[in-house]
Backbone:
């Protein structure tokens, strides 16, 4: 098993992509600390992971609250004596509509959850990983990370920030054997996409609404493939690759390992400005 006895802390693990990643990690032998804000959803994820043979521990908490995040990490260490893998999956879609019409509090909350939450979790887990001399961090990116979408300014800005944070941390972690990468899952049928679809309908964004309809009607990306990419990025197969954005939809990640030295010597799988010739 690719993650046997590795200790993984997964945020937003109560449902959707977070639950799918937790289950994939359980199948690969990881020991899991599952965190989110809703106890009933976390307990269900925990039960499903235990049925696959995994040891689990549940921690209720909000990734935007520093004390909660520090508890997530400290309880992980207390229970399993390590933090080998951190999956920053907790996220929200935020307000839909023209930026000047967005509710300011909702806009700011999106940045707090999607960016500040990732920062706080990395900040708490990195000292442990540095002491261990190893670690894998997987940050969930999303629509808007590499290209802009109208009427989703908070979400797009937050996910672009996650990519740059990922790249910056990778530079700071050189020589530590801690790798941090971003995972682009694609448009997957989750509660967030239901909310984006409904928001698009309310503001008359036909294109976003139609995409949301397709995604929530079964035409979205594969949640299983996103979870498989999360396994790859957390496992030894991803080697020294760090500071990269890998897409579950477009990238043949299973064939990347032999090319990792080439990737790391280039701007491949990064977000860069393109100039005219």
Residues:
């Amino acid at each position: 098993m690719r993650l046997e006895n590795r200790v993984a802390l997964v945020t937003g693990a109560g449902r959707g992509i977070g639950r799918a990643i937790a289950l994939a990690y359980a199948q690969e032998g990881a020991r899991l600390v599952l965190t989110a804000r809703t106890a009933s959803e976390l307990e269900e994820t925990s039960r499903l992971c235990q049925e696959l043979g995994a040891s689990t521990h549940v921690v209720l908490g909000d990734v935007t609250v520093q004390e909660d995040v520090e508890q997530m990490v400290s309880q992980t260490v207390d229970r399993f004596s390590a933090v080998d893998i951190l999956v920053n999956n907790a996220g929200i879609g935020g307000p839909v509509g023209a930026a000047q019409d967005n509710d300011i509090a909702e806009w700011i909350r999106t940045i707090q959850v999607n960016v500040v939450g990732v920062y706080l979790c990395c900040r708490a887990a990195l000292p442990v990983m540095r002491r261990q001399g190893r670690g894998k961090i997987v940050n969930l990116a999303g629509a808007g990370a590499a290209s802009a979408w109208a009427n989703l300014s908070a979400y797009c800005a937050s996910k672009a920030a996650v990519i740059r944070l990922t790249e910056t941390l990778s530079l700071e972690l050189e020589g530590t054997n801690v790798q941090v990468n971003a995972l682009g899952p694609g448009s997957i049928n989750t509660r967030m996409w239901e909310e984006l679809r409904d928001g698009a309908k309310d503001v008359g964004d036909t294109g976003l609404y139609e995409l949301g309809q397709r995604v929530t009607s079964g035409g979205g990306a594969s949640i299983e493939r996103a979870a498989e990419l999360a396994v790859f990025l957390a496992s030894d197969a991803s080697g020294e690759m760090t500071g990269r954005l890998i897409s579950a939809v477009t990238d043949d990640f299973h064939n990347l390992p032999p090319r990792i030295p080439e990737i790391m010597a280039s701007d491949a799988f990064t977000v860069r400005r393109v100039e005219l010739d």
Remarks:
- Strands lie at 7-11, 31-36, 56-60, 85-88, 135-140, 178-184, 245-247.
